[in-house]
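User: Fold this, then the next.

Assistant: Folding the first:
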Amino acid sequence: MALVRGDVRGTLPGRPAAALAAGDDLFLRHLIETGRASAARMALDPDGVLSMGQETRVTLDRPTIDRATGESQSTLTLLLGKIELALGSLFRGEVRVETPSATLGIKGTVLRALVDTAGRTLVAVLEGLVGVTSKATGETITLRAGEYTIVEPGGSPLPPAPFDPAAGTLSPSAGGPDFAVPGEDAFTETPLLPDQIRDLPREPPSQGPGGAPVGVREPPGAGRG
């Protein structure tokens, strides 16, 4: 965990929740939760950053690096709340984000995503391209920079529509002010400073068992008979 502000907790399967601090290891199937007025940021080696806003729940499902190609094939699940995911030019591979209503295929991108309590997913792309697939219908659309979509549970993605990244809000017909594109302040209720972001590690990660980067490991006791 790179940066923590406020109440941030992690829960492993079969274990109670525990407070997380900057520098703590993260494990496969770790559920990360932020409380009110809280935020967290973690590095995705070698050139990615995941930021979580307040009252957000994310699980780390498959953060691995292919030993043959050096490419990352990472999967995480956004259960509720807001995230910003930024993958730089040195990040080789793809990140898949699962939500209750959609699957996002992300490569070399900056995006913001929001899942509300009804399970609706909003995806807004600031840079690059993102594929958005409905879990209910299988329909896929591609979002480009400056475009967003909403996926309702049981429905297909809305056609890509433009938004103003500076304003970060959508018209009432697109979901209303309560379902707006998460702005930068969504991830800085207690500030995560830009200079700290720039200082996140950029070196290729060491690898643990199964190709997982050191710091994202199998839970203690996993695989023991």
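Now the next one, as you asked:
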Amino acid sequence: MISRSFAVFLLGVLFAGPGTAQETPVGKVTNLPIPRYVSIRANEANLRVGPGGQYPVRWRLMRASMPVMIVDEEEQWREVELYDGERGWLYAPLLSGARTLYVTASRAPLLSKGKSDARVEAFVEKGVVLRAKKCEPQWCEARKGDISGWISRSSVWGFLPNEVFD
């Protein structure tokens, strides 16, 4: 005869089923979280239609430090999504773990503090890539060359919705 507490435990396991706990998906090659953001290390990178050098080039990316979101992994290849939703495969050694942000607003202030009433240090235009120092729930601290400051998360792309980091 089984105890009542064991029966309750067994029923919990049976009815919980797979995937009811908050599980973070991980890449089958790196075991790192999927999706995740990285940046392009190389000045030129071929975005391919499939995971291998034999696949045609969809786009030639000509900008080091551009953030990309890794959505899948196959051996030495990473399927990535760009800021505009375009997807393709990049050779993994062309990527860096450095965190960068792509400015999506037409013109956004870089502020002295992560507060909307802070002093404006500079304005950045759409398409500028910033080096991220850290991101908090509403603001990211970033720099471009010698200029650094805080930018609203709503003005940039390069992080997961609830992600904070430093």
